[in-house]
Amino acid sequence: MDKMNDRKSGSVVVVGASLSGLMTGIALAKEGLQVTIVDKVSEEPRSGSGLQVDGGGFTQTKTEKLLKNLASGGKRSIQLWSSIESRLRDEAQADERINLRYNTRVQAVDQDEYAAWVITDQGEKIHGDLLIGADGHNSQVRSMVAPHKPDATFAGYIVWIATTDESDLPEEKRPGHHYPEVSMLESHSGFLFGSIISPANAVVGSASRRIGCTWYDNSRNDVFRHLGCVEGSVVHHSLKGMDIPEEIIRDLADQVMDYWSDPWKSAMLHALENRNLTGIPIKEYVPDQLVNGRIGLVGDAAHVPAPITASGFNASLQDAVDLGKCVTKGIEGMSGTKALKKYESLRLDKVRKMVESGKSYSRAFGLAGR
Fold this sequence. Notes:
A six-stranded mixed beta sheet has the order 5-2-1-9-19-18. The N and C termini lie far apart (about 60 Å). It has about 375 residues and is an alpha+beta fold. The chain has helices at about 20-30, 60-70, 80-95, 140-145, 220-225, 245-260, 265-275, 310-325, 335-370, and strands at about 10-15, 35-40, 50-55, 75-80, 100, 105-110, 115-120, 125-130, 130-135, 155-165, 180-185, 190-195, 210-215, 230, 235, 240, 275-285, 290, 295. Helix content is about 30%, strand content about 25%. It has nine helices and 19 strands.
């Protein structure tokens, strides 16, 4: 019997229905497990920037092929976060082994010798043989796995994220269809990665692409601290468009005019005018462990690399794939804790090296702005 359809006894609760949570849920369901994915957000579509997705290889498992096909058709490319999320969500909702629950806020996480569970703000207890935290940078589950090290730390710089529809730009400012998928520009306070993101099945010449701007900025740390976004080494929140002070908007626009070229100049100016951008204080997290008993971590809950590494999404996908490999013998009883320990042995050293690879850059770039 094909193991992709072989039903096993055992259940898993996944906290977080973003990309890593959806991929993990899909990977575990493909191993025959019953999966409940919970998230505090609503079912409304969410936006996001472009992500670098690695291509396929010759040694992929069926689950890895499936996830990479859902992410990018199995090709190395830049993909919109929202497009990947939509395809993963459709796959999860079509799988009878996955119960995808939005508007479900987790208040507490715990475990004993036999099970792990969450308690929601409505007092509901949702339990499984295993519990996986896929709840991002500010992971609540992480405090159960690594109570000595619960927080990701500020890397010392900001990234401004903006995407603009190609159709919103004057025709003469739009990039040609042989334009590089990714470009890099420098300025006196950082640099910008510009990306051109084509939706799936886009018609050439239809002006349906998105122009992404990812602008690294080490000159405004004091402003973000003053506004309460960063306190000490802890990041509390990002700065969304309408909350960005007008003085910063004007200053950013001046720098764009002085340093950027089109299409990035026009795309960023349009985003600034419409306040369609977010300022994100960058975090890093090097894990000491990925599991504790019946509770494990994947994705940004487990490891937070500097975005300069362009490795976060692909590491999250590999977390899901390797966790799936580790549960093939089931997860009931002691098999569950053994499966998580095996997962940790496969991933911990790799993800620690991944995060460390970006920290030297963060130290140099972040300190330069202080």
